[in-house]
Amino acid sequence: MFAMLNKYFNLDARKTRPGTEILAGIVTFTAMSYIIFVQPQIMSGNMFGMDTGMPFGALVTTTCLAAAFGSILMGLLANYPIGLAPGMGENFFFVFSILPLSAGVLGAKLGEAEVWRLGLGVVFISGVIFAILTVFNIRKLLLNAVSPSLKAGIAAGIGLFIAFIGLQNAGIVVIANKTISMTHSICSPEVAIFTIGLIAIVVLHIYKVKGSILWGILIAAAAAICFGRVHFENPFSLPKNPMPIFAKMDLVNIWKYIIKLLPVIIILTFMDVFDTMGTLIGVATQAKLMKNDKLPNANRAFASDAGGTLFGALCGHSTVTCYIESITGVESGGRTGLAAVITGICFLLAMFFAPFVEMVANCTAITAPALVVVGALMMQSFKAINWEDYSESIPAFLIIIGIPLCFNIADGMMLGFILYPIIKLISGKGREIGWLTYLLGAVLLLYMIFIKSGLFSF
Q: How far is it, in rounded angstroms, from Cα 383 to Cα 381?
């Protein structure tokens, strides 16, 4: 058995052993397993007090299936110790941008099955495009179309948006009469649960405890039980039936409304490319797998990510992507794909904890601290913006504030993407950017004028 594992995963060449890889895979799972609690809440709409029409129980099962498939595929195909799961940021984009647009083009209401099915079709097509980019090796062209400052602005803006949602779910921030303000019920149990969970995550993170976000959620859940906000039940059961959402994406209407849906398809593809490239480089560097500043087996890694997204859409989820939390497994000694395979197996076992996940979902204050912390971590990209160059910083800043204030990731991103080439051209810096940047800005501008404004319809 050892000889077979050693030969397939090149354990000796990467100076590691099966026991080390198994431990690393478990650590990576612990660090990213918070998505099992958060993703079903987001996709079902429970987190936002809305109903997308997607059943929570089925989403728990398919979250685990999508994460397991992506992680195992990455391990077997690319031999990297990187776990995959539905990405934070892309899931918010799905609910707040793709679903409303899908409802609009169909003339249907949010919550109707045809809406989320069309939304999943958008995710699937995005995955197909990502796969094509990988096959023809044109990722670099796409990456260069958006400057580092804009990429950093996107991550920071989404982080701010996610943290804002977390504060809302905690009951600290309220929106009433079109005004955002702090709650008057600061002594409520929900605020106490949030505070306990947030302090736990931050302190554990400071002490570098593996899986600090998961432990924080569990501590907040215990506090919710003490406050009587949830009731503890048997946490084990057979996995919920995934069939209500499995293989239900709409690949017919997507072509009928392709012009209207094209902007969100483009943006979703860009988000996946950015996430994957950044995570792969970050984790590979930490694991000392980079060679001459290049990523070996890069095409296989990108293919694994694309395959994860395609299977994720099949499972009823937003984009599946590489998780930066995989670095925790690397720090524990993970160097090969065996660690990713173990992470995937852990996600399969997690399907049997659906009752506990549903219990946590009944009180949004439990997972609110995780959103705030994830948002804060994403805000770290803020420092990567070139603030000295206004042609870079102002479009990036518009993205940062546009995403949370528009309450729509796509709209916020389009503000920066449209103004960026215009400012560059007028300021005499037009040669600093490529033709694809101008094309992207032009397409999005035409979309805003003729489609989004309703001046022209198909």
A: 5
The number of beta carbons lying within 10 Å of the beta carbon of residue 209 is 15
Residue of 89, 50, 46, 174 whose CA lies nearest to 410: 89
Low-confidence residues of the chain: pLDDT under 50: 458
- Which residues make beta-bridge pairs with 223? none
The confidence score (pLDDT) of residue 138 equals 76
Contacts of 69 (CB under 8 A, 6+ apart): 307, 308, 311, 312, 315, 344
Structure confidence at residue 453 (pLDDT): 64
Rounded-to-integer distance, Cα 160 and Cα 438, Å: 27
Residue for token digits 């609690």?
37
What is the pTM (predicted TM-score) of this model? 0.83
